[in-house]
# Entry
Amino acid sequence: MQRRKFLQGVGLAAIASTAGCTQLTGGQTESGGAGVSGETLTLTTTTSTYDTGLLDEIHPQFEEMYDVTVDAVAQGTGAALETARNGDSDIVMVHARGLEDEFMRNGYGINRRDLMFNDFVIVGPEDDPAGIEGMGSATEALQAIAEAEAAFVSRGDNSGTHTKELNLWEAAGVEPGGDWYQEIGAGMGEALNNANQQGAYTLSDRGTFISQRSEIDLVILVQGPIEGGPELLSNPYGILAVNPAVHEDANYDLAMAYIGWITSPGAQDAIANYEMNGEQLFYPRALSEDPDFQQYVPEGWSSDSDSE
# Structure
């Protein structure tokens, strides 16, 4: 009943696009073979994965394969994790490793996997009043924006992007505030539209910016590592299941089927092949000849365990 009220409250819509799917393989059973046929998986995720259309593109194959429905709730990372913490989600796809680690340390999330990545970029008006275009340092760019008191739009929503932005300001030694700095408490798409209307700067994930670039006049002024910019602007995404020992109503079987599917070679290829206006939005990260086992546990978990 609690889950049902929550879904009604956020106006959740099932993902039902059937366009252009890549055939996915990865050793899954036939439809319904895992005993999950007819069930619904509630996924809380960031606005960037949802607004770019990525989930609309790849989910139909999973839904058909298992005869299930994926209900995706697009929220900032903080809100997505809070929804899962309250027992209103089965699985979480987010991009703020520090918040993910806290979620796992507190026992709410398990079986985390690295999923994919893109990067952050600093965007703004073409006339670039703070003169940051081409800077190789994100922190120096933010310092220049603050010194010029040039308009800056912050998501202000405890999302992964907002968390990254705050970390960048801290690294720059700047405490943003005043009339030039506006927190809007909204998603990435709205932040870009707001910045566009004001002729302001903002921090954006590359995928959402690419998906909206044709509708706004903002340009990338400071690149992330994908285009040779600072590694500080990297943007990794993770996927993790809600712990059924904490929330017994969590659909753990289906969540684990989803994790297995989305980290499979076929789904990773589909992520890599997803483009907008001829540009790749996300880069797969789940498969590697030299896997990073730290992805499964919070940072420092081994050293914490050894010290007990």
Remarks:
- Confidence is low (pLDDT under 50) at residues 4-33, 304-308.
- The longest strand covers residues 109-124.
- The two ends are 41 Å apart (CA to CA).
